[in-house]
Amino acid sequence: MPRPFHPEGAGQLSVTPSESVRRGAERELEMLESLLALGGLVLLRDSVEWEGRSLLKALIKKSAACGEQVHILGCEVSEEEFREGFDSHVNSRLVYHDLFRDPLNWSKTGEALPEGPLGALRAMCRRTNPGPVTIALDSLSWLLLHLPCTTLCQTLHALSHQDSCPGNSTPVEPVHVLGLLHEELHGPGPVGALSSLAQAEVTLSGAMGQASAHILYRRPRQRPTHQTQWFSILPDFSLDLQRGPPLELQRHADPHTPPVDPTTQLTFNLHLSKEEKEAKDSLTLPFQFSSEKQQALLRPGPSQATSRIFYEPDAYDDLDQEDPDDDLDV
Amino acid sequence: FSLWSGSIWRGKLTLLCDAKTDGSFLVHHFLSFYLKANCKVCFVALIQSFSHYNIVGQKLGVSLTTARERGQLVFLEGLKSSVDVFFRSQEEPHPLQFLREANTGNLQPLFEFVREALKPGDNAEAAWRCPVLLVDDLSVLLSLGVGAVAVLDFIHYCRATVCCELKGNIVTLVHDSGDAEDEENDVLLNGLSHQSHLILRAEGLATGFCRDVHGQLRILWRRPSQLTAQRDRSLTYQYKIQDKSVSFFAKGMSPAVL
Fold first, then answer.
1. Which protein family is it in (chain B) (predicted)?
2. Which of A53, A86, B7, B82 is deepest in the core (most CB within 10 A)?
3. pLDDT at residue A278 above 80?
């Protein structure tokens, strides 16, 4: 079943305080659906303080609810812990590839996935089902610490572009790849490389106990768009969208106060009347060289107001050029 | 702290970390706490000698010697057994085998030691409650040449075995280098933080040393499950270490200043 595409306007989605609950439910659909609408990689960047696995599970639940099969490459938590909180319908559509119990084959019992993490990742590239599929990588950080960055990026690219297989006559549904990345563990290079592969990037943060997601969409042939959404995740992994940042933050950022006019209450006059303006504009400046001035200088006439200095020396004034201040002790 | 005595607190990784102060009092607390709670404890002690922990344990009301003799405590004394590594033949695996290797591979021998120590034994040992792994501390492994990823893998395997399979707990201490810009240590600390259910962070006071308040303790709950309340995610207390206990109080409420 093709996924309905909600066209997003370019630019900011403003959040006003007067949204109704119905609109809120629509926006919940918009946020998760718009993240899942594009094929390709959705990168979830989390941190120690704001964890991203809950949002990953919310996206998985949404995918499963739309009838997709979800494959999870689980490296960081056990299958039991990952499935916790999902209802049976969602759990039945989940296939958990366990890289948690023995990823490096230390137990040597043959239970571990053969060929290690890279083999498991590559195996996901070979799809047998033509139906829509979501692949969740929990986590990309674990893979990045154990595989070379270039190999991981190449495999991720192959993973998200399975619909363009040569020699395949039937059109294949786009693959959704969800990757969880712990930002603090990696340098800017690998994070930048993964970010450039992503169609959508969600950075998790928050304030005062309320989580927020800053989403960057990179749709093909369109400008990248940003959106910030405050949310909380309920125990059954459905999303509860908040209308804005917590109240404390809202009080500080108020863009609607009008600017104050500083000239209203002065004891002196800063304004000019019409006549004063005219006189000011017609005034010639003393050092502005115009043709009249040039003529006046070339032909000094007797009626010019030249300035002269009249000096009457006092009786005791001694105009000594070499010692005008009379303070040399000679 | 009563949270940990309940039966719901099992299969969890608790990360202790200290920044600009000494967080070892937390290690002593957890050691004595779990021994008193009748748990089987495997203590990988890389920093101090057995007698040091024993002396502090006695002040807190437990005897490590007795616990070791009756099989409740498995104690790996890093300082003493590291010397043994060099005087053994190479075929015999030793938990601290990595000290001998030029290219430090992984900590698999250490993991095998832990798994062997905590595996459920025959009926005689069924008296103990959940198994507990205690490590003091992980930062020193970085100084000994082990890579951060290798230490993370070791804790990963310990989590898979001790927490998930045996439903036990892990408590481990890592130092926060702070401004010292130790990249490997930062990767270790952040990687462990993401794996942890609970982070206890002991910090020195921002204003410096004080006689009556030794530091502050930040408590952060991660990995919210169905059982933990969402709103109590983060708490901060200040503490004072006394001879036989540690007293905690809310910020600014030290009896010395009230």
1. Belongs to the ELP6 family.
2. A53
3. yes
Q: Is the pLDDT of residue B227 over 50?
A: no
Is the CB of B194 less than 8 angstroms away from the CB of A76? yes
* Rounded distance between C-alpha atoms, residue B26 and residue B173, angstroms: 9
CB contact burial B147-157 (16+ within 10 A = b; e otherwise): bbbbbbbbbbb
Q: What is the pLDDT of residues B7-17, one digit of tens each?
A: 457 888 999 99
Chain A positions touching B201 (Cβ under 8 A) are: none
Alpha carbons B226 and A284: distance in angstroms, whole number = 83
pTM of the complete model:
0.77
What does the mean pLDDT of chain B come to? 84
- Which residues of chain A does B222 touch, with a Cβ-Cβ cutoff of 8 Å? 48, 51
Cβ-Cβ contacts under 8 Å for B162 (sequence gap 6 or more)? B114, B118, B131, B132, B133, B168, B169, B170
Question: Which residues have CB under 8 Å from B122's CB, separation 6+?
Answer: none
pLDDT at residue number B46: 93
Residue of A nearest to B147 (CA): A145
Q: Chain A: give the shortest CA distance to residue B34, in Å.
A: 25
pLDDT tens-digit series, residues A246-256: 666 555 545 55
| Cα of B60 to nearest chain A Cα, Å | 33
Q: Which residues of B touch A80 (CB under 8 A)?
A: 164
Q: Using the beta-carbon criterion (under 8 Å), do A51 and B106 form an inter-chain contact? A: no
Burial, A271: exposed, middle or buried (Cβ in 10 Å; 0-12, 13-18, 19+)? exposed
pLDDT computed for residue A250 by the predictor = 55
- Check B224 against A78: CB less than 8 A apart: no
DSSP three-state, residue A70? strand
CA distance B218 to B21: 13
Q: Which of A48, A99, A141, A146 to mutate to test the interface with B (most CBs of B within 10 A)?
A: A48
Inter-helix orientation angle B50-59/B24-36, to 10°: 70
Strand, helix or coil for residue A199: strand
Per-residue model confidence as pLDDT tens digits over B21-58: 888 999 999 999 999 989 999 999 999 999 999 999 99
A76–B231 CB contact, under 8 Å? no
CA B18 distance to own-chain centroid = 12
Q: Does B22 touch chain A (CB under 8 A)?
A: no
CA of B167, closest CA in chain A: separation in Å? Answer: 12
Q: What is the pLDDT of residue A186?
A: 93
